[in-house]
Structures are given as C-alpha cells and as structure tokens.
Amino acid sequence: MKNKLLVKLENAGVFLDGRWLVRGVSLELYQNSIVTLIGPNGSGKTTTGKLVLNILKSDEGEVSVYTKRIAYVPQKINIDWAVPLRVNDFMGLTGRISHSKVIENLSLTGVENLVNNNLADLSGGEFQRVLLARAIGKRPDLLILDEPVQGVDFNGEIKMYNLIKQISEEINCGILLISHDLNFVMASTDHVICLNGHVCCSGSPQDVAQNSSYIELFGEQAAATFSLYSHKHDHNHDPDGSISK
Known about the structure:
With 245 residues, this protein is of the alpha/beta class. The protein has helices spanning 45-53, 87-91, 99-108, 124-135, 154-170, 182-187, 205-209, 212-218, 220-232; strands spanning 5-16, 19-30, 34-38, 60-65, 70-73, 142-146, 174-178, 191-195, 199-203, 236-237, 243-244. The protein has a six-stranded mixed beta sheet with strand order 5-6-7-3-8-9, with helices on both faces. The chain has a three-stranded antiparallel beta sheet with strand order 2-1-4. Strands 10-11 form a two-stranded antiparallel sheet.
C-alpha cells in the first residue's frame, strides 16, 4: 500500500521585494518518508518550508496540501531565558495537555527524565529533543524541521538524525528536513532536493552526492566525504546512539 500524499508543490515560487526568493520548486511529501532540502545560505530552503506551511503564498505554480495535521520546529525560537520555565510547563504552552501525555511525548524522544528541569539548564541536544517532543504531541501527519541540530555536538547530531528517522516510522509521519549538515542528513534521508534559488538536482542521497550541480555548490570534498561516510556507516544506531547490528 502506497503511503498517503501529504503535500505537492508544482513549479512553485515566491517573489518578494523585487526578486525571486525561490522559483520552480517541485516536490512531493508522503507519510513515513523523509525529504531533505539542502543548499547554501539564502538558497530558499526556509522559504520552501514556509510554502508548505502556507505561511507564504506561491506567486507562481501550485501548492496542494492534503492534511491539516502539520507540525513545525522553526530554526529559531524566542524564549525569555530570564523567566524560569520547566519542561513540563513548556510542553503545555500552546494548549492543555495531561501530565501522562507530556511524559509519553518526552519518552518518544528519550528525555522524559527532564520533565521537571528548567528549560534554561538543558544542553543544546536536550533542548532540541524537547522541541521535537512538543512538535509530535498531536501526532502530525507531517513534521517540518528547520535546522534541527543547532547547538548539538557531533555525536548528538548522529543520535538526533537517527531519532528523527525512528519517529517517522513510529508515528507514521512524513518529514521535511531543512539542513546544511550535508553528510549525516543525506545518509539518513529517503529523498534529497538541492536548492540554490531553484532546484539544482534531486533524487536519492547517493545520486545527488555525485551530481555535478551538487559538487559545484559544495565542492568535490563534500561528495567524497559523503561517499566515505556511506561506505563506513554499515550499522544501525539504537535510540541512545549506541551501535546495533
């Protein structure tokens, strides 16, 4: 049985302040599938995400959305860190949620033990996991993550990307992942779209890594590093990041 189509963009573009921020973008997002947008700064990744979210309207082409159950974790979130705020309180800021449901959601991202901790005391990786737990609270069909490993160290990145894939499978949601963190993202995603104001190339991670447009944007070293990582990454990670066969 084919996964449900959630969002479809057909040659979509956004024209703002006298210029095209992005143009000619086509993509399809399905349940239980991870699509990653990569590209240099200013390439239109976040703009494309906002098209999917209907925050921005397309000035050309078509955007078709087939679900209302979409969750979003933005690249930046404004919090007054001077105000004490526990994880439990943060989880219920946008709507009432039972304590048992808070624990259930935090458990999905492995941070249920932090429920009574002050948000300001969390590490970068812990905070990202709390944000993720909050986003999946209403079991969305589609989850949009804009640079989800900000402030996370190298080992934390590996764990986070494995966690994202695990969540996609567990709650059967589609994921649109926006990132510049090329190697780990591309090694754990189903489909990659490379943007630079338009779609430079798209396809499987392996195909994109060898595409001349991708190499022109990121250099031959990026393709070589991806190939090396893909070759050596012949194992799976458990939720805690440990290796399993």
